[in-house]
């Protein structure tokens, strides 16, 4: 039987393994990317607010955004794996543009004249205390997340270009470790004075706890992240389409 024009005469299930396992990506025409982008932005904005509070669990020093921030990296992993480096980079810049906008909104709200009674003064003081340091935290988060997420996404996509669809767990763990280290070091260097960490010992504690915690959370969530990635891949109509498969090397560049 003559194969249809443009199709291989060899059935897909018996084509060479290398062809079946080549790196593939999806277009962003479906709603899944938009949902993940919105979730990433919300997580980052909330973690920036939480990070303005120093938190101590006995000798362990961290900040109030510690339980949220790893989720942004997990979402970044899903976007990088499914859509590629170029799309992930757009998500990173969009997320931070929204985070900067949120910070500007906080500044406007604080600057607006409030009621001059006792309740109004207390409310103003509470807003200044809670949201006042956020611009510095946003700066720390902007530089740290931009560098860390870019490295995380780049390494993940480069590894995918080499291994194709295989070894997803290795891509997630390898890229996360490098990205989280750069992210934590930059963020803590800027944010430490804002939340009240002034001595070197406290700073080292802050960096090590942040890096170990974030990396451990990502490693523990690798099975969940893998399930989420595979779920999205199965539902993205364009995932693995010839045009997108041909762009794998470009995405990894």
Please give a structural write-up.
The chain is 72% helix and 3% strand. With 253 residues, the chain is mainly alpha-helical. It has a two-stranded antiparallel sheet with strand order 1-2. A hairpin with a 2-residue loop joins strand 1 (54-57) and strand 2. Helix 3 (69-83) crosses helix 8 and helix 6 runs antiparallel to helix 7 (168-195). The model is unreliable at 4-20 (pLDDT under 50).
Placed side by side, the strands forming the largest sheet appear as 1-2
Identify low-pLDDT runs.
4-20
User: Looking at the structure, what is the overall shape?
Assistant: globular
The major beta sheet can be summarized as: 2 strands, antiparallel
Question: Which radius of gyration do the C-alpha atoms yield?
Answer: 22 Å
Mean pLDDT figure = 82
Protein name: Probable queuosine precursor transporter
Pfam family, one: Vut_1
Subcellular location: Cell membrane
Membrane topology: Multi-pass membrane protein
